[in-house]
Design a protein that fits this description.
This protein is an alpha+beta fold. It has five helices and four strands, in the order H-H-H-E-H-E-E-E-H. It has one domain. It has a four-stranded mixed sheet.
């Protein structure tokens, strides 16, 4: 008699990223670009993702909470660019960034603490309001 072994499903960081921000838009660059070039690549390749009104519920709610914390009357002033899959993600550890005028805050969705400098790490157990407060403080 054969014993059936239940397959284990392992929740990975990539699964978390795709769940929160949707499918990646960019592909990994074979050659590392400068941070400036990687940011421009992300900004010019958003596909059907609207940086002023993000498509996924999590990103949209986070965008709205940050706008509220910053007391923005026009939510389109704050932009959220997703960078999943591209050079900014692979080489600089940023899954996306919020931009308000000339200020920018990078974020990293992760299941483990990486301790990336100048990046707000978001973990599955984090509270949305706390994340929004942290990002708003950095953009203010």
């Amino acid at each position: 008699m054969r014993k059936y072994i239940e397959p284990k499903v392992i929740y990975t960081g990539r699964m978390f990223e795709y769940e929160v921000f949707g499918d990646p838009i960019l592909k990994k660059d074979k050659v590392k670009k400068s941070l400036f070039e990687a940011i421009l690549e992300v900004k010019h390749n958003q596909g059907n993702w609207d940086p002023t009104d993000p498509n996924t519920r999590f990103a949209n709610d986070l965008h709205a909470l940050i706008c509220d914390r910053l007391k923005l009357e026009n939510y389109s002033e704050l932009k959220f660019y997703k960078a999943l899959g591209g050079g900014l993600d692979w080489y600089y550890g940023a899954d996306g960034f919020f931009e308000l005028g000339d200020r920018r805050v990078f974020i990293d969705l992760t299941l483990r603490n990486k301790g990336l400098r100048d990046t707000v790490e978001i973990h599955p157990e984090d509270i949305l309001k706390d994340i929004a407060e942290t990002i708003a403080e950095q953009l203010a």
